[in-house]
Structures are given as structure tokens and as C-alpha cells.
Design a protein that fits this description.
With about 200 residues, the chain is α+β, with helices and mostly antiparallel strands. The protein has four helices and nine strands. The strands form two sheets. Strands 8-4-5-3-6-9 form a six-stranded antiparallel sheet. A hairpin with a 5-residue loop joins β1 (about 35) and β2 (about 40-45). α2 packs across α4 and α3 (about 85-95) crosses α4 (about 165-185). The radius of gyration is 16 Å and the shape is globular. Mean pLDDT is about 80; it is low at about 155-160 and about 190-204.
Length: about 200
């Protein structure tokens, strides 16, 4: 049975007439995405999409590989790759299957109950320095859903959906490379603003 997706809601915390309120309305109207909070506004995960989070350096390397992705956001030193809702729950098993499970990776998933900073949409006023931005912005809402990376038959709109397995394997590979590089140089990796429902994907 197809799950019922609740109607999107604009952030109840945004001040009427503010830039946050205007952005929240656009997210709800154009994409059907729910928002919450203010200064900054946040996108709620686990309903329309989940987010795969990794160091920006690793994320840029993934994009250079040419791996198909959905929308991609950048927040400080971290990158967020949007995947189909429910994908966060699949990622630990995928990493084990891909033989990345025993490796400590700076790779996390934001799923049900979580949130990520909401970048301005195209055409909106520019973000302040250091604020989240879209590297690959989402397309306006279309039926049945924007195409997001998913497992075949799970959250996928069909054969045109990017492959979640390929994306996870590429992300894990580049995260491992960044981790080794940081260990040699002594530079710590950053942390993306997120909710309490983050799920670590690999452990020491």
C-alpha cells in the first residue's frame, strides 16, 4: 500500500513578511517540502527526502566522478546529497554489503525527524556568507516526485532514478580518502547543521 504523504507546511516559526517566511512558502508551493525554524530556516527530512551528509571535499570529489545525484546542498564544510525518503535507514546495510562497514567514515544520514539548513531557492536573495547554498538545486515539483537516488523498487520512480548503491559507494570511497588525508595533516573534518535524528553510518 502506498504511504500517505502529509501536506507540506510552512515554518510556523518564521516571522510573517520575513525572508524566511517567503522562502518557506516557496518550498511548500514549488516543491511540496515542509520547513521549520528561522534564522536559519530548515528543511524537514524523512518525508519527501533524506540527506546523505559528508565532508565538502569528499562531496566535490563525488560530483567530479560524474555519479548521478539528486539535489545537492553545501553548508559550510559539509555537503548534503538528497536521496529518497527512507534511504537513511538503508545506508548502514548498504555500507556493510559494500564492505565499508568496518571502516570509520565521516558519513551520516539525516532521516525521519531530522532537519537540514534550507538554502535560498533560485531567484531568491543571495545567502549570507557561510550560509547553506544549493550546488544542484531541486527542480519545481512534478508528478509523482522529483527523481532522487533510491534502491531499485524502494522509493524509486522508475528506471530513471539515480542509483543509491553507486552513490553510497562513491561517497564512502571519497570520505575514506579525505579521512586519510586529514589524519596525515591533523585537520579535523567539519559538522553540518542537522537535527537529532542523524544516524552514523560507520564505526571504528
Amino acid at each position: 500500500m502506498t504511504p500517505t504523504v502529509p501536506q507540506p507546511r510552512s515554518s510556523p516559526d518564521a516571522v510573517p513578511g520575513s525572508a524566511d517566511a517567503a522562502l518557506a512558502r516557496r518550498y511548500a508551493k514549488e516543491l511540496g517540502w515542509a520547513t521549520a525554524g528561522r534564522n536559519p530556516l530548515h528543511l524537514l527530512t524523512g518525508v519527501r527526502f533524506d540527506v546523505l551528509e559528508l565532508p565538502a571535499e569528499a562531496g566535490h570529489a563525488v560530483l567530479r566522478r560524474g555519479v548521478r545525484t539528486g539535489p545537492v546542498l553545501l553548508s559550510g564544510t559539509r555537503m548534503g546529497l538528497l536521496v529518497a525518503a527512507g534511504g537513511a535507514d538503508e545506508l548502514p546495510g548498504l555500507l556493510d554489503w559494500l564492505e565499508w562497514g568496518p571502516v570509520a567514515l565521516d558519513l551520516t544520514a539525516v532521516g525521519a525527524g531530522g532537519r537540514v539548513a534550507a538554502p535560498p531557492l533560485p531567484g531568491a536573495p543571495g545567502a549570507s556568507p557561510g550560509a547553506a547554498v544549493w550546488l544542484r538545486p531541486p527542480e519545481p515539483r512534478r508528478a509523482p516526485e522529483p527523481v532522487l537516488p533510491a534502491l531499485a523498487g524502494f522509493g524509486s520512480s522508475g528506471g530513471d532514478a539515480p542509483d543509491l548503491v553507486r552513490l553510497v559507494d562513491a561517497a564512502a570511497t571519497e570520505c575514506h580518502r579525505v579521512r586519510l588525508s586529514c589524519a596525515r595533516s591533523g585537520v579535523p573534518t567539519g559538522v553540518l547543521t542537522r537535527g537529532t535524528a542523524d544516524q552514523p553510518l560507520a564505526f571504528s
